[in-house]
Amino acid sequence: MLRNIYSFGEQKEFNMIPAPRYTRLKGHKYQINGFEALKLASFYGANGAGKSNLIRSLDFLQDIVVKGDIPSPMKLKRMKHFHSSEEPMVLGVEFINNDIPYIYAVEIGNLSVLKEELYTSGLGKREDTLVYERTTAKEGKTVLRLSEKFQNSVEGRVLKGILENNLIKQNKTCLKILSELDNPLLQDTTNAYQWFEQKLKIITPKVRSGGLAQRLDTDAEFHRYAEQIVCSFSVGIKKLQTVTKSIEEFFGDDNKADMETLLNRLSKSPGMVLSLINSEGEELTVVEESGKVVVKQLKTEHTTKEGDSVMFDLSEESDGSRRLMDYLPALKDLITKDVTYFIDEIERSIHPLLIKEIIGKFSADDNTKGQLIFTTHESNLLDQEILRQDEIWFVEKDLTESSDIYSLCDFKEHNTKDIRKGYLSGRYGSIPFLANLKDLNWNAYDFRK
Predict the structure, then answer these.
(1) In the chain, is it the N or the C terminus that has fewer CB atoms within a 10 Å radius of its CB?
(2) What is the mean pLDDT of residues 376-400?
(3) Rounded to the nearest 5 degrees, what angle is found at the Cα of 106, between the Cα atoms of 101 and 111?
(4) d(CA 349, CA 51)
């Protein structure tokens, strides 16, 4: 659920609840304590319709929850929908972690968090149960409402006063603060925060897979899986290798300042794995192992026509090959873990047949555990053998230039319908409006003058 952020004006909602009348691809439904959820969702729309803004909005929500801070008033003003710049921004998400369903929502004004709440969800079958509700009064004072059991205890009343008067600030979200308190009555805040921090994964076109070299080097099972997948892509890569050097050897005498900066960061957070991008766009991993700080770099192995092995830097691989490797942790996690991945422009730099094969394989695997939600322009994925109709969504600008979200289920198509053909012909909207381009007289412009 989102309102008044980026290109979204009025409140819009998207869900992963299966349509009751749709019975095909039953392996796409997860059963969680009697509740059903879909494992896939796709978003289609013209350039500028708002697909990426949907992902950006969720990325923003995750950021302010995990870090606990909201941006400056100037940045918030730029983020708000241009029709309602003075109205509050509202974001909310319903999710399940460790078999417990939650509803988290936040309302943000120009200077503060106006309202923030966490409930255990009744999933429409029973009433939602309060975990906490926080509001900010006009004078900036925090008012906190917690469960009745918490507030009736002596410790709870004392802790509530400390939270309201000292710990919770108007320009900060408070889920992180509450999750760090050692109180059994606040266990739900810890569980909910863990979902935002560990189980919600967002990949944008510019994001690289963090710590890939480290995971390949330390997780033998993942290394075998990744190598098998990459070789099956037929991009010429035969093996994946991690080259490890001491930090002193890697940086040498000419970059001691950069080295000292990294060493200082690691000393403040022991056990931390640092990822950085070098000038060639390659990811490097810096980590402490056996008392030494090392730098790990991913290399790829190819074979010449004579049968000799030759090592490539990642920067020497094509954009498509690099993008595929960025997806390796996601592909493995989606099969084996209870995680939710949002990927913006999933087909970027990847051949249409290859991305269809990847999504098709995930679609056909009945043993997956994660959820995959992605935006795309790739019409080849509009195949009812890969996606259910309730897994296909569209984003389109309305007459007020606000983004709208709607499902293919709204059109009640038969399961034998050619969805791709219908989409490209404009049956469902969400395609570019080409009238102006068709009327454009190219010959009227002489660019040589």
Answers:
(1) C
(2) 93
(3) 165
(4) 18
DSSP string computed for 364-385: H-TT--SEEEEE---GGG--TT
Tell whether the torsion through CA atoms of 38, 43, 8 and 59 is positive or negative. Answer: positive
Residue 435, amino acid? A
DSSP secondary structure string, 324-337?
HHHTHHHHHHHHHS
| CA 358 vs CA 182, 205, 421: distances in Å | 43, 17, 22
For residues 66 and 234, give the distance between their C-alpha atoms in angstroms, rounded to a whole number.
39
Chain segment 319-351, per-residue pLDDT in tens = 889 899 889 999 999 999 999 999 999 999 899
At residue 440, the pLDDT reads 65
Chain centre distance of CA 262: 27
What residues contact residue 73 under an 8 Å CB cut-off, 6+ apart? 110, 111
Find tokens 């030759």 and name the residue: 310
CB-CB contact of 25 with 17 (8 Å): no
Give the closest residue to 321 by CA, choosing from 360, 281, 293, 284: 281
The secondary structure element, H or E, covering residue 289 is strand 283-289
User: What letter does residue 87 receive in the DSSP assignment?
Assistant: S
DSSP code of residue 105: E
Query: Given the DSSP bridges, would you call strands 40-44 and 371-375 parallel, antiparallel or unpaired?
Result: parallel
CB contact at 8 A, 375 and 387: no
β 100-108/113-120 pair status: antiparallel
Q: Yes or no: say if 155 and 162 are a contact pair by the CB < 8 Å rule.
A: no
